[in-house]
Amino acid sequence: MQDFVLYHxxxxxxxxxxxxxxxxxxxxxxxVLGRLLSFTVPSKExxxxxxxxxxxxxxxxxxxxxxxESDLLxxxxxxxxxxxxxxxxxAGEVWYEALMFGDIYDAEGNRFEGDSRYALMKTIEQTREAxxxxxxxEIEFFLFENDKSVKLLDAGGYFYSGKWGELRKLAMIYLxxxxxxxxxxxxxxxxxxxxxxxxxxxALETADRIMLAKYVLKRTAExxxxxxxxxxxxxxxxxxxxxxLHISLxxxxxxxxxxxxxxxxxxxxxxxxxIKYGKxxxxxxxxxxxxxxxxxxxxxxxxxxxxxxxxxxxxxxVPNFRKDSKNSYRIELRSPDPACNPYLAFALxxxxxLKGVEEGIPISEPQQVNVYELSEEExxxxxxxxLNSNLKxxxxxxxxxxxxxxxxxxxxHQKLIENKEKEWESYISEVGxxxxxxxxxxxxxxxxxxx
Length: 451
What we know:
Blueprint: H1 9-18, E1 22-30, E2 36-42, H2 46-52, E3 54-57, E4 71-76, E5 82-83, E6 88-90, E7 93-105, H3 116-126, E8 132-144, H4 165-177, E9 182-187, E10 193-198, E11 201-202, H5 203-223, E12 227-229, E13 243-251, E14 254-255, E15 258-259, E16 262-263, H6 265-276, H7 278-285, H8 291-294, E17 304-305, E18 307-309, E19 316-318, E20 331-333, H9 342-358, H10 376-381, E21 385-386, H11 391-399, H12 402-430, H13 441-447
Parallel strand pairs: 1-7, 18-19
Antiparallel strand pairs: 1-2, 3-4, 4-7, 5-7, 6-7, 8-10, 8-11, 8-12, 8-13, 9-10, 13-14, 13-20, 15-16, 17-21, 19-20
Keywords: ATP-binding, Ligase, Magnesium, Nucleotide-binding
Enzyme class: ligase
Catalytic activity: L-glutamate + NH4(+) + ATP = L-glutamine + ADP + phosphate + H(+)
């Protein structure tokens, strides 16, 4: 693996000087919905961007600035420097492109409150005394012919390769060349469904890697005249795309989720915080109308706020640990999907989990039964609540959530409310309530091309 991740702007400038074939650098950021955006400068402009920033108009970016206060400044972060592993050719010209994430400032020189990456950075800094969050994502996706059809391309199943395993391998090679280590890949449960698991890393780096992995997977598919979709539920009666997150916190090099007897009380109370605040933060972890079609019984997707071991029907699963590795002690949060904004999701997950520790929430009994098979009365007796069943329910709780407003800031909180109110109104206007458990043509037309 070639590690393109440098650490100082001098190293980046030296690299660009020594590699004249890298003619351009893309500056990357995300909008409030977590969609990857960029603008490109010639490599000779990177030094000026480090020193003075590069201005851009934020008025057309979802969740950014209003038109009369739209001047924003992007300063690249040299620690995120990478080179895309493929070359570009056009009209006899050949070149490579680098990329960097960065920090966004407003016209007064203050950090821009609409920057999702900054929201996560703030939360990590505010909670640093508790430890540094590390996260390992499992990214699921479907492979289709194009962005207009959900025609299945293979008959594979879980760990049964089917076709197109080479696409996953090529994407893994590209990611490794970019300094993004992959733990494994495999075919998923549904036909035409695949998964790539990234190695765990600190939360900010992991969020960056998720954005880049999704980009690389889509570009790799394009090179094979195919289309990768992270849409949470593209096909009715098949499992949807999740992004299970393996989470732990480290302090002074020690995993705070470890104890000699298993998951520590700290880790258990972190899980209790996620359960208590799970419905409030769900709008961000599952942010699309289509996200809620995935969270239905029978497809190994969580519908109920409970935790346990070896049990994939639960919101939080405690995986088997390697007894010889303290660092492997973790929890697996199973509700997020890969169409979420990972920066905002990680910020809320971190804060909600730590509130469970701060509040000393009593540790509930782990559930060892298949929660799908319990009756409503049995779930009530066990104190197990449902997750929100649609975007509207999640939106109403998000609106009144002090936790979400505190973590995301008023700007992002309000922009998300405005965006999701419009999304829900549009869906109800076009579809109504006829497709509570089915994927409508409206969703295919609206979400497949963009997710």
